[in-house]
Amino acid sequence: MSVFSDRVARLRKERKLTQMELAEALEFSRQTVSNWEKGKIEPSVGVLLKIAEYFGITTDFLLGNEAYTTQYEGKYKQEGFYWGSKINRLAREVLRLIPPERPLRLLEVGCGEGQAAVFFARNGYHVTAFDIAASGLAKGRKLAKAAGVHVDFFQVDLLHHDLVNDYDVIYSTDVLEYVPPKKREQLLRSFRDHTTVGGLNVLDTFVEKSFIDVAPDWEHSKEFYWQTGELFSHYRENWKFELCEETIFDCDSGGMPHQHCMDMIIARRMT
Ligand SMILES: C[S@@+](CC[C@H](N)C(=O)[O-])C[C@H]1O[C@@H](n2cnc3c(N)ncnc32)[C@H](O)[C@@H]1O
Questions:
Q1: Is the dihedral of CA 176, 181, 186, 188 positive or negative?
Q2: Which of 10, 78, 84, 228 is deepest in the core (most CB within 10 A)?
Q3: Does the pLDDT at position 212 exceed 80?
Q4: Which residue ranges form the domains of the chain, and what is each CATH number?
Q5: Closest C-alpha residue for ligand 1 atom 16
Q6: pLDDT score of 73
Q7: Cα→Cα distances 132→112, 149, 164, Å
Q8: Rounded to the nearest 5 degrees, what angle is found at the Cα of 262, between the Cα atoms of 7 and 172?
Q9: Distance between the two ends of the chain, CA-based, in angstroms?
């Protein structure tokens, strides 16, 4: 699927439109909209302009030349650190399980405001970190500068980014729920393939539970619950679990108390 297909489908769902409703608004057939979303036809420049005008976005955005951002773009622009200053338990586990006694490369996926990335850099890892929210990256760069460390921060949409290098650690917390079910196998395969032997994948994600309400700040058209055990099932054969856990915890992100169920893993590549 092209970036265009993905974005037109996401924009339509965000506005809660059916394919028929979008087709009528743009004066095309429902089949044409369906074909755009399936990547079966690429629109002409004129059609791109029409779609962009309708959604109030740019053609560059539709073509993927501008990043698709999240609610955090605005949140990270506020004073202070939206996620507080506490370092995640999984980050501490990385230090314990794979200490940087030799040069180790660590990739953080969806690094937010960069606190974990800077924590790793301060502890001696060579850190690369990306997020879609430019405002978070700007904070991360400042934090790294203040700490006197280097982190290679860059902005990219993880759904449209191919990993090139290999890493000793791929670390991502509270991000995988932004990956739609159909894209999970491909993304996690790329994490596995780009991990060195002996290296770690350190991941967590939110899991659906019938007895837990959807979080008040859930981004409905962008976030998708995982199923219990689904994350674990991507790590078999030559992977060993250093940690594999499901937990329920209280959260007050957005100032509204709620609960989450989370699956987390630390998996080590054995061969
Ligand atoms: C809940 S926050 C977690 C931030 C950080 N990992 C942490 O644990 O504090 C989710 C992060 O994922 C980022 N994100 C969501 N979708 C993304 C995408 N498609 N590509 C890159 N980053 C994305 C958001 O911008 C946000 O910073």
A1: positive
A2: 10
A3: yes
A4: 3-66 (1.10.260.40), 74-269 (3.40.50.150)
A5: 178
A6: 85
A7: 8, 22, 18
A8: 55
A9: 32
